[in-house]
Amino acid sequence: MATQEKKSLPLEFEQPLVLLAQQIEALEKQLQETHNPELDEDLKRLHEQYGNLKRSLYSNLRPIDHLALARHPQRPYTRDYFERFDPNWLELHGDRKGADDPAMVCGLLNINGVKILAIGTQKGRSLRDKQHCNFGMPQPEGYRKALRFFQHAEKFALPVVTLIDTPGAYPGMAAEEHNQAEAIAVNLRELSGLTVPVIAIVTGEGGSGGALGIGVANRILMLEHSVYSVISPEGCASILWRSADKVAEACNAMKMTAKEIQALGIVDEVVEEPLGGAHHDYDLVAKNLGKALVKHIKELSKLSRADLRKDRQNKFRKIGAFVEAK
Amino acid sequence: MDLKEWFANRQKRQEYAQVKQPLTTEEYCALWTQCFQCRELLYTRDLRVSLYVCPKCQYHFRIGAEERIEQLADPDTFVEIDANLISSDPLGFVDSEPYPVRQKEASKKSGLKEAIITGTMKINDLPVAIGFMDFGHFGGSMGSVVGEKVTRLIEHAQSKSLPVIIISSSGGARMQEGILSLMQLAKTSSALKSFHDAGLLYISILSEPTFGGVTASFAMLGDIIIAEPGARVGFAGRRVIEQTIRQKLPADFQTAEYLLKHGQVDMVIERAKMRDILAKLIVFHGAHDKRENHSSIQHEKSKNKSESTLSSR
Q1: Domain tally, chain A
Q2: Per the CB 3.0–4.6 Å rule, which of A171, A240, B38, B171 could disulfide with B236?
Q3: Does A326 map to a domain?
Q4: From the CA of A49, how many Å to the nearest CA of chain B?
């Protein structure tokens, strides 16, 4: 995957790595021209240094670095995963009420013999694509489309897998008029009542109610560098700090990284990404993710249908931190 | 007027202003209230009698949980439940001040422990389980405690087969509890699923203002949804939407009347009629004698069961 790595767009915190890579490249060029054995030694040292730096850089990421990785323009999106889970996956469209939101993708997948109904928010890759998908922000119609497929899964006893990568539900005028809040609220209620296994995976950004609208699951998984929060860090910074440049502080305070949310008991498993982030190796991430979700579906399939509902409702019933004074 | 004179006058003017100052002190404000809409000065004591509605322009003032209880409950029937739940600080959240300090400040300002009061009471002799959100406490925001209290209220109502009424007034989920606040949306909605399946009545009342996570969960899940006149209700705030779509929104955007026009609420009811409408709705849906209904249905079911087992024998 070396070619992909070179093409990857570096983030701000990755600058030292980029500089070192440039040095190595220059040295390699020189070596080709002069064949100086001394340079050979230097090159070896530099390569070693590069490896060390990379490891230490990615094991000491700040929350805002995770955010940057989660939003990386080359990060794999929902369709990338679906294609790798099942190259013959079948996309299904429409909310049957007059719209088909491209920001919400639904389809029938077969992952190594396990049939699932998969639903996910889709960001666009090219600018045109991005506009088409509304930058991954679903309209109420998108949530109603998802609801239609929840009910479909219920009828045919299919496990539901949702992939979450959205800045949030779209805040627009038409979205309000078509009742964005109700669309999400109904999904929360209906998801909690399903009697099939539901697995939610945060693959990039888990933005508030827009993410939770397809995220009420028996098991919640997060990719290593994905984030999940009650409000975007920019929104939090502008409200609580009254300043747009306190995003890093907001990221720290909100505890929005996969590991932190796992520590709060909300996330069941954090799925590892390749060193440097998911965009370095799509196939590997999809493989890891596919393996993890098949494992969870198999575990959940042991429960009866009534117990699946109870399991999910109990999971959320327990969430909350408060003191009960006597 | 030369410069010296002007400065002298300035000093006098400032003194004059200081003499005028007492007019804007809290005492004065407590006596008189200016209507936010028509700017009429209203005598506060009269305002209480008129249910905090401006007699001139029918503007509905934002009111707290205590006033709501007084307006809706039959005298001395309200019994609070889960009054002893208090927020903790699960994230150790600090912005310009630590979260626990902000909580104390909020409580001092509102006189409440949390942004919702829940309990049981009677409306025109009909028993109900009811929750009153209070925007005056922490912007009515929903953290773990609000989520837990709403959930327990619904569970309590279900176990006693009571109708649930929740009066919402909230800025949304509480940022200081991070993802835990977000999960309260799922928790409350999940409790409503079981309540819904049990065939019980839930009336949601939307009051000024209801936004974000509260609208995107229990507030929009009522079997019947009532809004107060002029109340602003929505998912995203007006400013966020204007920034996103880069155009001005209509003046009445997200008001109760706008919602009614767009099919989002069943009705817009002024405060004076609220009690009677609630009572009528409860009686119409048979929610007041659900308890007997329930036991009779169950009785029939068990009877059927025994019959069927008999016939199978």
Answers
A1: 2
A2: A171
A3: no
A4: 37
A-chain residues near B181 (CB < 8 A):
230
Task: Please say if the pLDDT value at position B190 is more than 90.
Answer: yes
As a whole number, mean pLDDT of residues A15-21 equals 85
Chain B residue with CA closest to A168: the answer is B236
Interface test with B, best of A150, A322, A323, A324 (most B CBs within 10 A): A322
Q: Quick one: A282 and A150 in the same domain?
A: yes
Q: Would you call B144 and A239 a contact, using CB atoms and an 8 Å cutoff? A: no
Task: Clarify whether residues A26 and A72 are in a common domain.
Answer: no
ipTM of the complex, rounded to two decimals: 0.91
Overall number of domains in chain B: 1
How many Cβ atoms are within 10 Å of B31's Cβ, its own excluded?
A: 11
- Please check whether residues A34 and A89 belong to one and the same domain: no
* CATH number of the domain within which A92 lies: 3.90.226.10
pLDDT of res. A241: 87
Give contacts of A208 with chain B, Cβ < 8 Å: 173, 182, 213
Please report whether residue A103 resides in a domain. Answer: yes
Query: Cα(A221)–Cα(A202) distance, rounded to whole angstroms?
Result: 6
Residues A136 and A239 in one domain: yes
pLDDT: which is higher, A138 or B288 = A138
Query: Is B5 a domain residue?
Result: no
Instruction: Indicate whether B181 belongs to any domain.
Output: yes
Q: Each residue of A106-132: pLDDT tens digit?
A: 999 999 999 999 999 999 888 998 999
**Which residue of chain A is at minimal alpha-carbon distance from B87?**
A322
Banded pLDDT at B225 (limits 50, 70, 90): very high
Interchain CB contact of A9 with B (< 8 Å) = no
Q: Which domain holds residue A82?
A: 67-317
Q: How close B262 comes to chain A (CA, Å)?
A: 6
Residue-wise pLDDT tens digits, A164-213: 999 999 998 999 999 999 999 999 999 999 999 999 999 999 989 999 99
Say how many C-beta atoms besides its own lie within 10 A of residue A142's C-beta. Answer: 33
- For the segment B65-118, what is each residue's pLDDT rounded down to a tens digit? 999 999 999 999 999 999 999 989 999 998 888 999 999 999 999 899 999 999
Full domain range(s) for residue B176: 64-288
Q: How far is CA A78 from the centre of its chain?
A: 9
Higher pLDDT, B72 or B299: B72
Residue A6 domain flag: no
